[in-house]
Amino acid sequence: MPSRTWTPPFPLDLGAVLGPLRRGPGDPSFSTEGGIWFAANTPCGPGTLHIRRTDAIEAEAWGDGGLWLLDGLPALLGADDPLDEFVAHHPIVAEARRQRPGLRLGATGRVWDLLFASILEQKVTGKEAFRTWRELGRRFGEPAPGPLPLKVPPTPHRLLALQDWEWHQCGLDGARRRTLINAAQVAHRLEKAAEMRSRELLEKVPGIGVWTSAEVAQRSWGDPDAVSVGDYHVAKNVGWALTGKPVDDDGMMELLEPYTPQRHRAVRYLEAAGMQRPRRAPRFSPRDYRRF
């Protein structure tokens, strides 16, 4: 079992940096039991990484991809994040940054696992997406190496072998299924997006637009400027935080313009500060496509 100790030369909030990798409660590839664990597909095969904070960062890894995950530990925890270049143009953003000096943007260096999860989250409630992620992971993900009963997210090859009834049992509608199949068919090429830092490469796949590519870029290469345009909540929350009223995507991008090329970071600070508009309308009811 290989291990590594790393001392970050900056304040580090481990939970805040790695939290975006978790896809809801019950994520079969993620655990917070005695630290943070996650299972992933890597260029060397499946691997599991366990990270905990002592005086330094202690990490252990299992599986064929274990050494690859350990090599990427500093980048995963924000070592390559250009945080020092960020300028807060609004008092509320400046205060959020002051209160959260350990909030950084990490980079996994991989695309498939993140793209898979982000496609499932297209145009549905988080509850729907997380349920489908759990079902697909538990049924078709391989057991993760290591001591915890985690699952490695299903590979493109495994998803392409699924039958219609298996998709249906996991609650996936036709539109997201088609997009996921499109992505799985060219997944080996899409891994270059992380190296090239190219959202445009991801958007060449039918069904993948600016929202999905931004969600992947934020996590895969820690893109500080990748705003989730098209999200149901983000623009409204940003507008409410900065102006006292919700705005649409165009209004949000206008408000965030001074933060270019770190607009996503400004959004992350607002989210970390809990800046959400009051919700007066009823919540969307999650749909269960297994009933259709």
TrEMBL record:
Enzyme class per UniProt: hydrolase
SMART domains: ENDO3c
Gene3D superfamilies documented for this protein: Hypothetical protein, domain 2
E.C. designation(s): 3.2.2.21
InterPro entries: Alkylbase_DNA_Glycosylase/TA, DNA_glycosylase, HhH-GPD_domain
UniProt keyword Ribosomal protein present: no
Domain HhH-GPD: 120-275
PANTHER family listed in its UniProt record: DNA GLYCOSYLASE, DNA-3-METHYLADENINE GLYCOSYLASE
Protein name listed in UniProt: DNA-3-methyladenine glycosylase II
